[in-house]
Prior knowledge:
Layout: H1 2-33, E1 36-51, E2 66-78, E3 81-85, H2 100-107, E4 115-120, H3 137-157
Antiparallel strand pairs: 1-2, 1-4, 2-3
Helix pairs in contact: 1-3
Amino acid sequence: MARAITMLIFGGFGVMFLYVGLTQFLQQRRSLANAVEIVATIAYSAVHTSTSADTDGRLISSNSTTTHRPDLRFTYVVAGKAYESDLLYPTIIVRGYASREAVEEVLAPYPVNATVPAYVDPSHPGEAFLIAERSSAPIVFLVLALLVPLVAWFVSKYI
Length: 159
């Protein structure tokens, strides 16, 4: 019974990783293939820092991990309609960074109220992004989708 539960849980995670990886891979591909350059105005730009809690639920620096990520929003107009987006890259999977300085470097070209180029697929005007580069994050999710069931099988052998 424990083996079946383990396979079901890990299998569920595998399906989730497969879905997110595949949908984001296809969205990224479509967005980059059809991207047109537009003008955007940065509305918010900051470093978001989060610290994980230890197993007791308390924040303890020796047992916790701190990560940083860019947190920004920008406004733009497509076909006369105003939109707002928070996508740095053409995927919703956000990159995390180990240092605040690394995120500050990424955000340096995007200070609040700056007018910057952005990119949008006109058929999906609500999904504009600032950096027209492929992210490897969808591929990571697809690889995890393959590895998680293998880990489940391995773990279930020893339960």
